[in-house]
Amino acid sequence: MPAADLPVAHLDLDAFFAAVEERQKPSLRGTPVVVAGLGPRGVITTANYPARAYGVRSAMPTWQGRALAPLAAWLSPRFEAYAEHSRAALAPVLAAFARVEQVAFDEVYVDLTSAYEGDWTGDPRAAVERLRGMVSAAVGLSASVGVARHKLGAKLASEAAKPGGTRVLDAAAEEELLLGLPVTALPGIGPVGAQRLSGGGIRTLPELRAAGLPTVTGLLGSAVGRAMWELAHGRDERPVEAERVRKSVGSERTFAVDLHGLVACREGLDPLFAEAHERLLASGETARTVTVKLRYADFAVQTRSVSLPSPSDDEQVLLEAARRALLASSAGAPGALGVRLLGVAFSGLDSVAQLVLGAEERPRPALTPLAVVEEEGEEAPAPEGAAVTEHSPAGADVVHPEHGRGWLVGAGHGVASVRFETTLSPPARTRSVRLDGTLRHAPPEPVVPGPLP
């Protein structure tokens, strides 16, 4: 089947956050690496494949993952480094096609018919290999690539190709794959949705098909149930969108009297959230990111964002995220100026809903690189140039006037444990450095292009 009939590719950078950590920290290569919030309520963001062998998974509570793999390298996220590697890895893809839809740091859909130059429509297998080769040549990272008739099929193909593989799904192969998948393989069915379907005796896609549309919509609701019914039958009409017409949905308001303190701000936030949520529902979209905007009395503007594991339109899930974003602002700090304007915006919009059908298992919003929202007891990223302290997060970039650049293994009792190594250096052993102000936080190491020697 020619690529004209298989026009959509999905490219996914394998275990991306952990892969960046391994690339810039030679001593960790080939060992279990976990990127996670390290506070008492932290959640795992990414685990590399050696860590997954111990049962560690993304979205798992950090305490649970530590029990499974206590000797893994547990690192706090470095979103700036991930953003730089994402730009470097995906730049050649974005330069080659007019329609590339980037949905995350590590994930893009590509319309193969939109190539600026050359023929990408004659050989689907050659096309996916070329895409994977682009990423490897740019920054040496592993990617999995799938191609199919539509976005659902392409994503399922890339998932089946992990890690570091490619897969082409024509209509027959796609149908064969769908018949062997659980309902959770569909984008939009999370743990609670799966539980609701399981209560109706539906655990697999063949069982969902056999149940009939009335049963599925009865369990999941009319709109979402019908959407999942279509996807379960391999029907997905979502286009690859280089730019969405609607970037965000929201509401904001300037108050006649400044708001002081978190209690007053929360009272002002809730009705704004209700307006924004009503607009989101009217748009027929779901949101991945919730952003709270504050303009203080001196007209300084601050934004804080929280990102969900999957897009949602559920009121309570989104409201919890908005309130957590507000808590991460400076509005409640001692001596904070009053807030003259508040706003709530939903972004990362998607037309396929994340099912959240009950209150007992709503996913806890994960942190987004747009603003690092601290959990209670979480270690916060330190400003560049600040002295390393016992509260500095593990994995942070540091620099020492004598030993040079490295990364923080941990700190305590007046001493920091550091490995002074970079992408192209030999693996380093841990060295102890006194916390006397000479060890400083540093910006991420610049991206080293191409595969490693």
UniProtKB/TrEMBL annotation:
Stretch list, region Disordered: 425-453
GO biological process: DNA repair; DNA-templated DNA replication; error-prone translesion synthesis; SOS response
Active site feature: 107
CDD domains: PolY_Pol_IV_kappa (cd03586)
Any one Gene Ontology cellular component term annotated for this protein: cytosol
Cofactor names: Mg(2+)
GO molecular function: damaged DNA binding; DNA-directed DNA polymerase activity; magnesium ion binding
Matching Pfam families: IMS (PF00817), IMS_C (PF11799)
Comp. bias (Pro residues): 444-453
Subunit structure comment from the entry: Monomer.
Identification of the protein by name: DNA polymerase IV
